[in-house]
Amino acid sequence: MDVRSLGYVVIESTDPAKWLDYGTNILGLMVAPMMPDDGNVYLKMDERPFRFVITKGEQDRLQLCGWELADQETFEATKDSLKSVGVEFTEGSAELAQARQVRGLISLKDPAGNGLELYWGASLDYAKFVSPKGIAEFETGFNGDMGFGHAVLPAPNLQETHAFYRDVLGFGDTDYMHFKFSEDPNDPGMGLNFMHVNNPRHHSLALYQDQSPVGCIHLMVEVREDVDEVGYCLDRVNEAGIPVVSTLGRHTNDRMLSFYMATPTGFAMEFGTGGLQMDWEGYTPTVSTLPSLWGHKFQAPDGGH
Known about the structure:
Layout lengths: L2 E11 L2 H11 L3 E2 L9 E4 L7 E5 L4 E9 L2 H13 L5 E2 L2 H7 L3 E6 L5 E6 L28 E6 L3 H11 L3 E8 L10 E7 L8 E4 L9 E6 L3 H14 L3 E8 L5 E6 L5 E6 L12 E2 L4 E4 L10
Parallel strand pairs: 1-4, 5-8, 9-12, 10-17, 13-16
Antiparallel strand pairs: 1-5, 2-3, 3-4, 6-7, 7-8, 9-13, 10-11, 11-12, 14-15, 14-18, 15-16
């Protein structure tokens, strides 16, 4: 398979207006000008019509991640592969494809129960991104081909879920970490698999060996080559009284300089810059024993890496 990027997320919210305020006034995203006024909140960050959809619902949770495939041929081959290994999926209707601004999609769940959509033929609206907070550019690649960032998802059944993304969907391994939270030698700890798709981003997905009541450990957005924008966002977070889940720091494996904050949904948001862009030819996956070179003092157990 040829998964190209993490294209979008759909977030269910009991109060989408909170995400409208958070997305624009804290993250610096733009209200998507080309999307319909249908009661959902659509947030834009690049040439794509939207990257975040927030829908009104009965609970607060990450509903699904949308993963972009290379083309229709890959899309059809993906469906055949899923059928051959007994993975159930639902064909997206023409109305749903239109809502997602893609030419075709399917919906399914991974072995941990996380929702995902696999799609092809994403639209570009080329509407100029104008951040309400003056952010010049987010790092999403050429015409958004690196995706909006990354997602860290809960996977209590880590081995099974990791195998699904690796062996069924064709994600590649980037790095592995294992955390222990006590000095007890019998503490089994928790694993964390970092995985990449067919773009230079160090990881577009990570799977964390734990559960989450909101269906997500954290999401990440990255500003392009501007440390000050990270600082400006941190100031906005502090001024708004939003909890800082992790202090400013630089990660070991992807070199991202970032901090983590709470979101209206309850998972964390990593806001960073300077993440590595990789050449995957001949790459050997790593095992990291230290999550950060400096900083990143987590102040709640939910943030993940």
